[in-house]
Amino acid sequence: MEYDLSHGFEPVPDDASELASVIDACLSTGRMNDMIRRFSDSLGFRQYKPASALHEMAIAEAAVTKFLVTGSEFFAAAHIEDTLDKAEELADLTAQIRSADFYDALVKATSAVVREKFPHVQPTRLENLTSERVLDTTIDTVHAEDTSKPSDALRGVKFVFCYVPGVDAAESLEETMTSHWSDESSSLTIRPDAVFARFLKLAGISREQWLEAVEDVCGVDLREDPPHGAPAWMWERAEAWRKFNPPHDGQKPVTDVRTLVEAVDNVPSGFTPSIAFSADAQALMNRDWNRPLTVTGGVIGLSDLINGSGDPIRFDGSVTVAGDREDIVLSANLPNPLEKAYGIHASAFQSQLKDRDEVRLTSDESRWSVFSERDRSVA
Predict the structure, then answer these.
(1) What is the pLDDT of residues 80-136, one digit of tens each?
(2) What's the pLDDT at 363?
């Protein structure tokens, strides 16, 4: 039943459904509708706002993981929408509306107008019913005016990401680790294979720069034959380093090469080459995944991600990588997250990300197709 409020009301017997209809008609007038809309806007409500509470961060983390695994923003958004606590959100909104002075004034003004139609209704009853209708109308208006979307829950929310080249193709994390001769890994025993070439690529180091730094730190030219009577693996090492010729595109080292040599010496179990950086989750998801990614600043991972050992190092230089989505993982999803297992301060992961202008046609791995599967060496 509709009412034209401009002509006033004729008193009628007290009827709950009619009373509610008159209240709704009052609230639907242009003036009241405009006041409710302005009140709704003043609340600044967004159903989907940047995650901050622990349970919200867990939802955001799972959504980002779904995107990295599937490449689908739809699946990420669906997870946020399906797992957001709508009851808690509604309770918070209701409390916010009820606590506003304007809400009380609106209820009283609406009750006064409706009382003209229902003069015999008990005032408390009228005000309670009016309060409910004003609340419901305001909530509906707030939701109608809300332009937020599920992905907004990720806006400005930073996570630590790890770029681990080759991890998508690997059957286990062990396959992403460097290998070595002898019992322990060091700059003198590490094998120059496809995995180690990934490390040099991430560090922006050429073969010549690495060999020179090793000789400076350890006094050994890895390409020279060992003295007579040396273990067989040393002869194999010299031959492997003479053959080792990974591609180098002229990038500058991200940090001092000798520091990296010393760090390799501090990881006797070997490590997974990676770079870790802090990034806005929404911005990372929205990047152009067909373009190479330049990372300036972050942590270069000389880390055994399985056992939690290693010597990750902060770098301030820039490195450009293929940036395959499949090779980027949330650090939190690793067996030993870098930001937790190594005591690294959060500031160490601060980075700047930039998409390069050129279109990425092939991944870094395709450039290393000459690697032998048998011994993972470079021809």
Answers:
(1) 999 988 888 889 999 999 999 889 988 988 888 888 878 888 888 888 899 999 999
(2) 52
Most distant CA pair in the chain, distance: 115
Select from 357, 231, 197, 374 the least CA-distant residue to 290.
357
Return phi, psi of residue 103, to 5°.
-60, -45
> For 17-54, how does the pLDDT look when each residue is reduced to its tens digit (9 = 90+)?
778 888 888 888 888 888 889 999 888 888 898 998 89
3-class state of residue 58 by DSSP: helix
* Domains of the chain, residue spans: 5-48+84-154, 158-367
Place of tokens 């003069």: 119
Residue-level pLDDT at 17: 78
Over residues 133-174, the pLDDT tens digits come to 999 999 999 999 999 999 999 999 999 999 999 999 999 899
- CA torsion sign, 261 to 262 to 263 to 267? positive
Please report where in the chains the tokens 């650090």 appear, as a residue: 331
CA distance 250 to 89: 53
Residues 125, 130: Cα–Cα separation, whole Å: 8
**Residue closest to 343 by CA, chosen among 311, 300, 315:** 311
Pairing of strands 158-163, 352-355: unpaired
C-alpha distance from residue 259 to each of 164, 180, 262 (Å)? 21, 20, 5
Q: Which of 242, 41, 234 is nearest to 147 (CA)?
A: 41
Asked if 291 contacts 249 with a C-beta cutoff of 8 angstroms, the reply is: no
Does residue 85 sit in helix, strand or coil? coil
For residue 197, what pLDDT band results from cuts at 50, 70 and 90? very high
**Token pair for 178:** 């460097």
CB atoms within 10 A of CB 112: 12
Taking each helix axis from N to C end, the angle separating 16-27 and 30-43, rounded to the nearest 10 degrees, works out to: 80
Q: Tokens 């092939």 correspond to what residue?
A: 362
Which residues, in sequence order, are bridge partners of residue 293? 321, 355
Per-position b or e across 327-355, b if 16+ CB within 10 A of its CB: bbbbbbebebbbbebbebeeebbbbebee
